[in-house]
Amino acid sequence: VVTGASTGLGLETCRQLAGRGWTVVVTGRSLQRAEAAARTIGEAALAASLDVTSSEQAASLAALVEDRFGRLDALVNNAGAIFEDAHRHGVLEADPAAVLRSVDNNAVGALRVTQALAPLLVRSRGVVVNVSSGMGGVAEMDGGHTGYRLSKAALNALTRILHAELSHTGVRVNAVCPGWVRTDMGGSGATRSVSEGARGIVWAATLEPDGPSGGFFRDGKPIAW
Ligand SMILES: NC(=O)c1ccc[n+]([C@@H]2O[C@H](COP(=O)([O-])OP(=O)(O)OC[C@H]3O[C@@H](n4cnc5c(N)ncnc54)[C@H](OP(=O)(O)O)[C@@H]3O)[C@@H](O)[C@H]2O)c1
Fold first, then answer.
1. Which of 83, 148, 203, 216 is catalytic?
2. pLDDT tens-digit series, residues 22-77
3. In angstroms, what is the span from residue 144 Cα to ligand 1's centroid?
4. Ligand 1: which atom is nearest the Cα of residue 52?
């Protein structure tokens, strides 16, 4: 299951997973767009609607996955957005409402979806991949984009909490930074192709049972939290 998968890194992650023989659930907040995206992948892809700000939709998705597959090998919490006004993203000018929306969407969204799908993941001893960003790393935290940075720092913390509470079940949980990628979010000036960016996400989604958990990775290599 990949969230926010109608476009960008989410869709490319689905494509690469399907290329490895996986069945993928392409979720998006517009079912129509998720269906169009799934069609570009083919039979290995099933579309489903999911806005990660809705616990009800997360529960419906869990019911769908239970009915269709009865298991879940990987959840990729990829959905994310930037809410701040491009000209008011400094910490002293940041709009607190936009900061809250950012944390709700980008971090609490992953919490909602993981809560709903956890029973299926535990059954399959699956993996959770939280698509984070170096911009959420506290060790090298810089200024600007306050809401986005806080949301990704919270997503990183969620990764550690989930790891602490789920590791005894065999479920592995990691955060991945895809690098700066040419998507709608990253813009045309970004240094990486979508395919390069998705590769590290797919690596974390397809970990062997003895693979790492509780880490923050870029290109399969640990980076500072
Ligand atoms: N591009 C980069 O340089 C970069 C760098 C580091 C991290 N990331 C992270 O990578 C992830 C994917 O971003 P991207 O670069 O592929 O950007 P993108 O092309 O803008 O895709 C973001 C996706 O997230 C979806 N989304 C946002 N809020 C959602 C919600 N509430 N419910 C469901 N879906 C939602 C969007 O859906 P709609 O189509 O409906 O808007 C869109 O499909 C994000 O978490 C982003 O923070 C990106």
1. 148
2. 999 999 999 999 999 999 999 999 999 999 999 999 999 999 999 999 999 999 99
3. 19
4. 32
CA distance 64 to 27: 12
Structure tokens at 35: 């269906």
CA distance 138 to 135: 8
DSSP H stretches of helix in the chain: 8-19, 31-41, 55-68, 96-103, 109-124, 146-166, 194-205
Name the DSSP letter for residue 87: T
| pLDDT tens-place string over residues 166-193 | 999 999 999 999 999 999 999 999 999 9
Q: Is 106 a catalytic residue?
A: no
Answer whether 184 contacts ligand 1 (Cβ < 6 A): yes
CA–CA dist 40, 196 (Å, integer) = 19
Contact yes or no for 15/23 (Cβ under 8 A): no
115-119 long-range contacts (CB < 8 A, ≥24 apart) are 115/55, 115/58, 116/55, 116/58, 116/59, 116/61, 116/62, 117/1, 117/58, 117/61, 117/62, 117/65, 117/72, 117/75, 118/166, 118/171, 119/62
Residue 84: pLDDT band with limits 50, 70, 90: confident
- Closest Cα to atom 34 of ligand 1: 4
